[in-house]
Every structure is written in C-alpha cells, then in structure tokens.
C-alpha cells in the first residue's frame, strides 16, 4: 500500500490540507476554514478534526497514513513541537505536534509555514537541484527560509528568516513589529497597496497596482519602482548573509512574474560587489507549497523516529 503523510498548512483564513506521498506527490487535497475568529482553542479543535478526517480518507482510498506534518504561522519551536505565538490564529504555547500525534497515533512534525514552503520549493520546486536555496515569500508580509540540502534552519529561537524586519528605510513607515522602515513595511504587497493609496488617494489591491503600473499609470509606476528598489536592498542584505545559489520568490507579489523579477534582478546585480549573483526565479509550487512542505516535514519525522 502507498504510504502518505497527513499534511496541513494552517493559514489565518484557510487551511490547505492533503495527503502527500513519501516522494512529495499531492495525492489528495482539501481546503477548510480555519475558524480563527472563534479563538485558538477552536482552531486546534479544527486542526485535530481535519487531520483525523484526512487519515480516514487515506484509508478509504487504499492509502496508508504513516505520519503527520503541520505548517503554521507565527513563532514556532520546531524542536519541541510547540506553536509559541501566532496572533492571526490565536496560538500561545500550543503543543501541536503532541496533540496531533496523540490524536492520530502517528509521528508528527510541526514547522513554520514559510520554512515549510521553502523546503518544498527547494526539494520539489524552483530550487530543485541546488544545495543552497533562499525562499522569500512576499505577500501581506515578507519572510524567508534558508534551505541547505533540503532542510530549513529555524534559528535558536525559531525566528530565523525574518528578512521582512530588516530595516531598509530608516525612519520610514511604521511596521507592525514596532520598528520603522522594515522591508515588510515598504515592500510587501500590503505596503504597495498602501503606498499607491497615499500617492493617488484611491484604494487598489496590490494586484491592481501592479496591473496599473504595467499599463503605464505614473503613480502606480512610482509606487512599484519604490517597492522593487527596497526589495533589491533587502535581497542584497540577504545574499550577503546567506550566499544562496538561488533565490526563489513566492507569495502574492510573485504573480507579477517578469514585471517583478527583471527589474529586481537588475537592482540586485547593481548592488552586489564581492558577492556572487544568485539565480532569481519565481516559485513553482504556488499555494500548494506549504502543504507539500508539511508533508515533507512529516516524512522527515517518520525517518527520525
């Protein structure tokens, strides 16, 4: 029988879930509301119920669930399997790994959502074949995963990869972390939309601003160029610190494709001196990356058990 991992990528609004084969193939996919408005305890109950349902689905399809993997936002203690803190889903010191393992009777792994996505892109997606990969997700916020030989580094406190909180515009816009001028505050999809509103007095989504910039709207072009310029500064810092062979750009802003990657690559190239220029590529797995990564982490836990 084919062995699969029960995999859940828990977001603030939706959980992207599935059954992932040991080779990284998504054999079954589901989406469920996270129910974050009901509080952290309700979210945990939802996770446990969905995980149990996926295990039942696997057996009904003739598959054998052998492990579970979860990817969650916020601060994650991966070593001890604890969701330390996540404001958007109400987690505070939740021992999710143990709870899921006990519910399913299977070994389990808990990882950070961006790091899980980075592992998937490194092993299965745009970083395949490269030992040193930096995955940068640019959406509502900005975060990164440094992946070496298919494994992401969490850091001493589970906070590695927070490139969105590198200050690139000192004294700039207030960031949610309390600092001013963080990369996330000036170059995320949310920041792009805010900047256009400031310039034009009209509220558009980041995707609409990108489309307007592509169409030549001068204020949209200005907002877009400012974002690309800040991202180039941020990636220069990241390249200097991590020295990856490839930087994989994911998240909502990556949907702009060449409109983003070409000027961003040129900006990065212009800033590098002694550093080696990385390949700069768009993520390949889309919004399935987190679920696939959770599945890979679950498989790793099984091998380590």
UniProtKB/TrEMBL annotation:
Coiled coil: none annotated. One of its GO terms (molecular function) is kinase activity. Keywords: Kinase, Transferase. The keyword Phosphoprotein does not apply. PANTHER family: BIFUNCTIONAL UDP-N-ACETYLGLUCOSAMINE 2-EPIMERASE_N-ACETYLMANNOSAMINE KINASE, ROK (REPRESSOR, ORF, KINASE) FAMILY. Belongs to the ROK (NagC/XylR) family. This is Glucokinase. It comes from Asanoa hainanensis.
């Amino acid at each position: 029988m084919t062995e699969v991992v029960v995999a859940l990528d828990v977001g603030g609004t939706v959980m992207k879930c599935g059954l992932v084969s040991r080779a990284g193939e998504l054999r079954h996919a589901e989406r469920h509301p996270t129910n974050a408005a009901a509080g952290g305890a309700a979210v945990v109950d939802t996770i446990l119920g969905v995980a149990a349902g996926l295990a039942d689905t696997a057996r009904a399809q003739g598959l054998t669930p052998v492990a579970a993997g979860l990817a969650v936002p916020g601060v994650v203690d991966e070593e001890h399997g604890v969701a330390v803190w996540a404001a958007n889903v109400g987690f505070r010191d939740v021992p999710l790994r143990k709870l899921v393992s006990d519910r399913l009777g299977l070994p389990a792994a808990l990882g950070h959502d961006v790091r899980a996505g980075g592992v998937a892109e490194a092993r299965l997606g745009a970083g395949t074949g490269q030992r040193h990969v930096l995955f940068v997700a640019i959406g509502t916020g900005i975060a990164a995963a440094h992946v070496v030989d298919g494994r992401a580094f969490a850091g001493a406190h589970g906070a590695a990869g927070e490139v969105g909180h590198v200050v690139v515009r000192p004294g700039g816009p207030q960031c949610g972390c309390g600092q001013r001028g963080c990369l996330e505050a000036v170059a995320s999809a949310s920041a792009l939309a805010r900047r256009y509103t400031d310039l034009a007095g009209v509220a558009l989504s980041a995707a609409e601003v990108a489309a307007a910039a592509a169409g030549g709207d001068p204020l949209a072009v200005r907002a877009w160029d400012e974002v690309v310029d800040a991202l180039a500064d941020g990636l220069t810092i990241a390249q200097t610190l991590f020295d990856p062979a490839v930087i994989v750009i994911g998240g909502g802003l990556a949907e702009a494709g060449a409109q983003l990657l070409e000027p961003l690559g040129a900006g990065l190239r212009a800033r590098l001196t002694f550093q080696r220029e990385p390949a700069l590529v768009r993520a390949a797995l889309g919004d399935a990356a987190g679920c696939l990564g959770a599945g890979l982490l679950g498989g790793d836990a099984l091998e380590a058990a």
